[in-house]
């Protein structure tokens, strides 16, 4: 018989769940097919790592972590109080590679009694995660649950819920966030790293104008889109949510988080830099070449200036949230969550 907690979570889910649709089923089939054989979902260009190591890492160091794995490990560990096994869950875990590395970090930091449950709809990815966990010596700390996180109903409370680059794939954000609230009620935390820009990872007009300004400086070879296999003499603002879940409600993530959670930590960053360092065009850059590095340096400088002035809004966040108490309110560069929301009504 379902517990009181499960029945309450089910009622929340029913209240928010939309009617099933053929569109959802088609998108789901596409998602499963895309990631069925995807071994490394984080295969980013060398120029991305040049940028992140030079600009992101020093900012994150001010917040007490370096790599995103350390971000998750630090804030999961901080939720552990008293004795007994700590329970964590990762929603949209995919291949579980981040979760395996986080589990290893938690062990290195002295945490011995914990379980990190990995939730994902893709059985093939979870099986890869299971094999990786065993080979890396943390098989006893990871559990695997095959489930659509759009319909996730937590069966217990957790010290922390983590979501690593998964929220921008979620259609039913309201329902998921209500489930997360219930799962961390009583002192837990919601720890996430995600993309919060325009739906489909498009640019809002004010950012698109700056991207196209820099685009004119690029040699022709740098304007070849390796993902879509096409030349783009002018930057084409592609909606990648068409037929997929990629970025399907990205612009709704931050407003909904602001309405439902308090923030212990909020670290927003990047916007205009995204197309130049991501998979589509980033592989065209040579991270060892002076011109390439100097170009990225100039785009980054303009990007940060515009964000801090409030003329454009950040497209990425790392955040630690809670319910039932006031958040600590640690904001990177003084950027507060509500002020980083880009209102669609601006045009």
What does this structure look like?
The protein has 347 residues and is an alpha/beta fold. It has a domain at 4-38 and 63-195 and 251-269 and 320-328: Rossmann fold, CATH 3.40.50. The protein has helices spanning 4-16, 22-36, 46-61, 68-77, 97-108, 123-135, 173-184, 205-215, 250-260, 274-277, 290-308; strands at 86-91, 114-120, 142-146, 160-164, 189-195, 224-225, 230-231, 262-269, 316-322, 330-331. The protein is globular, with a radius of gyration of 20 Å. Residues 1-20 have low confidence and may be disordered.
Summarize the structure.
With 347 residues, this protein is of the alpha/beta class. Helix content is 39%, strand content 15%. It starts with a helix and ends in a 16-residue tail after the last strand.
Poorly predicted ranges (pLDDT <50, ≥5 residues)?
1-20
Task: Indicate the overall shape.
Answer: globular
Q: What is the architecture of the domain at 4-38 and 63-195 and 251-269 and 320-328 at the second tier of CATH?
A: 3-Layer(aba) Sandwich
Percent of sequence in beta strands: 5-15%
Beta-strand segment tally: 10
How would you name the oligomeric state of the polypeptide chains in this document?
single chain
User: In the CATH hierarchy, what is the class of the domain at 4-38 and 63-195 and 251-269 and 320-328?
Assistant: Alpha Beta
Average pLDDT for all residues: 90
Rg is 20 Å
